[in-house]
Design a protein that fits this description.
Layout: H1 2-26, H2 29-59, H3 65-93
Length: about 90
């Protein structure tokens, strides 16, 4: 058991030191600057890809993701109104 306790103490010491070092490194402008630029470039590429895919689907006359979301929102609103009406009918009948 003593060997296991020594291992655990060593691991926790290593983990604490590593976590502090990694946290400082992650807050460094040398990491944040390029990471932010990479994220920005990735998001711009994703937006461009999404537009291209939506245009392609639209060219085929198929609904885009935005069209589907709009229809789903309208269906959810209708379902809510139907549920409300059913509850009103039940309360008047009961």
């Amino acid at each position: 058991m003593m060997l296991w306790d020594m291992y655990k103490k060593g691991f926790y010491a290593w983990e604490g030191a590593t976590a502090k070092l990694l946290e400082q490194w992650m807050k460094s402008p040398l990491v944040l600057g390029p990471s932010g630029a990479l994220l920005t470039a990735t998001m711009k590429a994703k937006a461009q890809t999404d537009r291209a895919v939506a245009t392609w689907w639209g060219a085929w006359g198929l609904p885009t993701k935005r069209d589907q979301e709009r229809v789903m929102h309208a269906l959810n609103q209708l379902e809510s109104k139907l549920i409300d009406l059913e509850e009103k009918i039940e309360s008047r009948q009961g």
